[in-house]
Specification:
Layout: E1 3-4, E2 9-11, H1 36-39, H2 47-50, H3 64-77, E3 81-83, E4 90-97, E5 103-114, E6 123-124, H4 131-144, E7 146-147, E8 151-155, H5 161-169, E9 176-179, E10 185-188, H6 194-205, E11 209-213, H7 215-228, E12 243-250, E13 257-259, E14 262-266, H8 273-280, E15 284-289, H9 296-312, E16 317-322, E17 327-333, H10 349-352, H11 355-367, H12 372-377, E18 381-384, H13 387-393, E19 399-404, H14 410-418, E20 429-431, E21 441-442
Length: 444
């Protein structure tokens, strides 16, 4: 992976006294094109640029993208944003609590990474993307020329060579320290030390990377690079759009935290809870968990702990809650039945051993008749990151059932993508999210 430093744009501390007012989660964490936590917090919050709300009066000349461009232009004129004087990389550490209670720092760095086709095997995706979000992000980039959204990249470095260099480069107070949502502490440094940058560039040169989060942003960068490649002769600065704003984190870091995305079934015609439970017995060992409605969180935590134990023992397991039966249970897959199932012919052995793959093939495809195309369209399945939320939501129609999952280990993600596969949709939720508004790139 070729990386290069850049002259980043950052908020002017003389104009913005509290960075917490102006940073934002990525656009894909917003609901319905707006998030009051950020849009209403401050008129200079970066959310106004990355996701300017739609209006009924939008036109070709006045729309969410042109308003973002106009706002950005004004912020630059007013020196709300300043461009760094020197080419730099930006070490980016996030300090947070792991689920086990340990407080830890996830150490990464922000730089421009070369945009290549997946076929070159320098960048590995792990999930498919959808057309609509890419069209939205591409139009924003075309209109504003702002590269603001970080792609979260994982690189392998078992010896921790790059992290040690980052620690040497960050032995002073961070240039930016800001508390983000969920109490995540974000720290970022500006490093223009040529020797340090050269060492990191050299260490990264022979590495491939895996996209942990930001597939849509990366594929938008691929498309925009194709669209603008012939403009290099007009202005060499267009060549910088052959690179993308990325944050690089060591795959082996103990601070890599992957959360599961639980599934909720809704609107499936003919779904009968009792019959479905009987069908599950053909493939799973079922262990009921006493469900106390007045203290459901305790019951769910018991189930989640059993799920963790099954994963540690090398067994595939899922949790299920059937509200019609008030039934919470642990489902442990019977591996001797795997040979009787219709597995996708183009999938690796590792893919077939993922919990999310077993859920998809055995339960969604085989028992519920929900095919891959229907899953991609999202008509019957919704995704929820919190187990308690998943269970509480299925109490009311049109929801019918909740499936609770273990997180997919990052080692399995690596094995699957390096074998040339993609994981099932919504297999991972890397935590914490990378914040926007700390630094961004604009080359013209």
């Amino acid at each position: 992976m070729q990386i290069i430093p850049f002259r980043g744009y950052r908020f002017n501390p003389d104009r913005i006294s509290n960075l917490e007012d102006v940073i934002s989660l990525p656009y894909d964490q917003f609901k319905q094109h707006r998030d009051e936590r950020f849009h209403d917090r401050h008129p200079y919050n970066i959310a106004h640029i990355i996701m300017n709300p739609k209006t009924r009066d939008d036109s070709l000349t006045d729309n969410q993208y042109t308003r973002s461009k106009k706002l950005l232009h004004q912020w630059l004129l007013d020196s709300v944003l300043l461009q760094d004087a020197e080419l730099s990389i930006y070490p980016y550490y996030q300090d947070f609590y792991l689920p086990n209670g340990n407080y830890i720092s996830r150490k990464g760095f922000v730089a421009l990474g070369k945009v290549t086709e997946y076929s070159s095997r320098e960048v590995y995706p792990h999930e498919r993307t959808m057309t609509k979000p890419k069209q939205d992000r591409l139009q924003l980039l075309r209109t504003t020329l702002v590269d603001s959204g970080l792609v979260f990249m994982l690189y392998s470095d078992p010896e921790g060579e790059i992290e040690r260099e980052l620690d040497l480069l960050t032995n002073q107070n961070a240039d930016m320290t800001v508390l983000g949502p969920e109490g995540i502490l974000n720290r970022m440094w500006t490093v223009s030390n040529n020797e340090g940058i050269n060492k990191i560039q050299k260490a990264m040169k022979c590495k491939s990377v895996i996209i942990a989060d930001g597939h849509h942003r990366y594929e938008v960068a691929q498309q925009f690079h194709k669209e603008t490649a012939n403009r290099f002769s007009q202005n060499p600065a267009w060549g910088n759009y052959g690179f993308k704003l990325m944050s690089f984190v060591r795959l082996e870091s103990p601070a890599i935290s992957v959360f599961p995305l639980h599934r909720i079934l809704r609107d499936r015609d003919g779904f009968e809870p009792s019959k479905f439970l009987q069908q599950l017995e053909d493939f799973f060992r079922i262990q009921s968990i006493p469900f106390n409605e007045s203290n459901s969180a305790n019951s769910i935590e018991i189930l989640l702990e059993k799920l963790r134990q099954e994963q540690q023992a090398g067994r595939n397991a899922l949790g299920i809650y059937l509200p019609g039966l008030r039934h919470l249970a642990l489902l442990t897959f019977s591996p001797n039945l795997a040979a009787s199932l219709k597995w996708p012919l183009d999938k690796s052995e590792t893919w077939c051993k993922l919990d999310v793959s077993i859920l998809q093939v055995v339960i969604f495809n085989e028992l519920l008749g929900i095919g891959d195309r229907e899953l991609a369209q999202g008509g019957y399945i919704e995704y929820v990151s919190d187990a308690n939320d998943a269970v509480s939501r299925v109490i009311r129609p049109p929801y019918q059932c909740a499936f609770l999952l273990n997180p997919t280990p990052v080692t399995q993600v690596q094995e699957v993508v390096e074998s040339g596969d993609l994981l099932p949709q919504k297999s991972t939720h890397f935590h914490p999210k990378l914040m926007e508004g700390l630094v961004f790139a604009k080359h013209l």
